Amino acid sequence: MVSSRLPPKPDFDAIAKSAPSTADRRTQILALIGNLVSSWSNNESLFIYVLMILQRTSQESAALTFATLNTTRARLDLIQRLAKITIRDKSLDKALAKIIERFNESTAVRNEFNHCMYIVDASGQITHTQSMRIVQTKDSLQFGEMKPMDDARLKSMVKVTRDMARINREIWEFLPRLEEHLLSTEKRPS
């Protein structure tokens, strides 16, 4: 008989029976994940307005362009390229680059929680995440990193969500500056 390489099947009945005792912690973790994902999504969506201003087009056209590009990286690449040919103010260009850099850092965290397997113990408590990324070292390939869902990790999730809220405010403050800059460059004779 060939032994299976599969992990053992969870005891779903035991987990369901014990789950109410760990519901508060699980709810806290799921709420933090939800806050991360919704904050990130709101920030990504604000780049539609950056695109709108850079393309000097309507919100609908910018949204269409945005939606046609099917990855965040492609959307940000387009924004960065358009910025290179339209933004003449170095401080404004640096501000946009900094916003994108910080957004990309938050994307890594969002991806970590969107693309992982959640490991639960016998009581239904989420104890770890296992990344779905392949990690290549000098000598081997490993299937994803496993990280504990301990208090330190939960605190880091709160911190990242706060950072995302600051990024959101920064984008809102940046948009009128960008719009004003491009309007002023249109008025100048070539």
Give your account of this protein's structure:
- It is built from six helices and five strands; from the N terminus they run αααααβββββα.
- It is mainly alpha-helical.
- A three-stranded antiparallel β-sheet has the order 1-2-5.
- Strand 3 (134-136) and strand 4 (141-143) form a beta hairpin.
- The chain is elongated and about 75 Å long.
- The model has no long low-confidence stretch (mean pLDDT 92).
SSE blueprint and pairings:
Blueprint: H1 12-18, H2 23-55, H3 59-68, H4 72-86, H5 90-114, E1 116-120, E2 126-131, E3 134-136, E4 141-143, E5 146-148, H6 151-187
Antiparallel strand pairs: 1-2, 2-5, 3-4
Helix pairs in contact: 2-3, 2-4, 2-5, 2-6, 4-5, 5-6
The gyration radius over C-alpha positions equals 22 Å
Counted beta strands: 5
Overall geometric form: elongated
Q: What kind of sheet is the major sheet?
A: 3 strands, antiparallel
> Helical proportion?
55-70%
Strand order of the largest sheet: 1-2-5
Structural category is: mainly alpha
Task: Assess the beta-strand content as a share of residues.
Answer: 5-15%
What is the CA–CA distance across the termini? 80 Å
Low-pLDDT runs: none
Strand/helix succession: HHHHHEEEEEH
Q: How much is the average pLDDT? A: 92
Number of helical elements:
6
TL;DR of this structure?
This protein is mainly alpha-helical. Helix content is 67%, strand content 11%. Strands 1-2-5 form a three-stranded antiparallel beta sheet. The protein has a two-stranded antiparallel ribbon with strand order 3-4.
